[in-house]
Write a structure and sequence with these properties.
- With about 120 residues, the chain is mostly beta strands.
- It is about 5% helix and about 55% strand.
- It has one domain: Beta Barrel (Lipocalin), CATH 2.40.128.
- A hairpin with a 4-residue loop joins β1 (about 25-30) and β2.
Length: about 120
């Protein structure tokens, strides 16, 4: 379970190149107040990189990155996979965007273990 928590932090997710899904590019703050990330294209993928971590937050650091290979699924969502190079883990991911709110959900073990995280866009 700790990989989901850490990966979710580095995750603030993703923008594919389609205009139909919500725009994920930019700065996002995690709902628990412990992390901020920058989401931007990185090659053909999308990367979420930690830009700030609340002091004392274990197993997370500035610069940790999540590399997402995702595609638009609807007017407000994406799905695909995410790779966490710090932990050498890959998991299935979905992202839903509604205005300045984003929810990310990562799953492993054929979807048996999942965790969702809420994010707010930083203007």
């Amino acid at each position: 379970m700790k990989w989901i928590s850490a990966a979710a932090v580095t995750f603030a997710f993703c923008l594919a190149t389609s205009a139909t899904a919500g725009d994920m590019n930019g700065e996002w703050a995690r709902g628990d107040g412990n992390a901020k990330v920058r989401v931007a294209p990185c090659g053909s993928d999308v990367c979420a990189t930690n830009t700030w971590i609340k002091p004392g937050t274990p197993k997370e650091k500035v610069g940790d990155k999540l590399v997402m290979t995702i595609k638009p699924t609807s007017n407000d969502g994406y799905s695909g996979t995410a790779f966490d190079p710090q932990r050498d883990l890959t998991y299935k991911m979905t992202v839903t965007i509604s205005g300045d709110k984003m929810t990310t959900r990562g799953c492993v073990l054929a979807g048996i273990i999942c965790k969702g995280v809420d994010w707010t866009r930083i203007n």
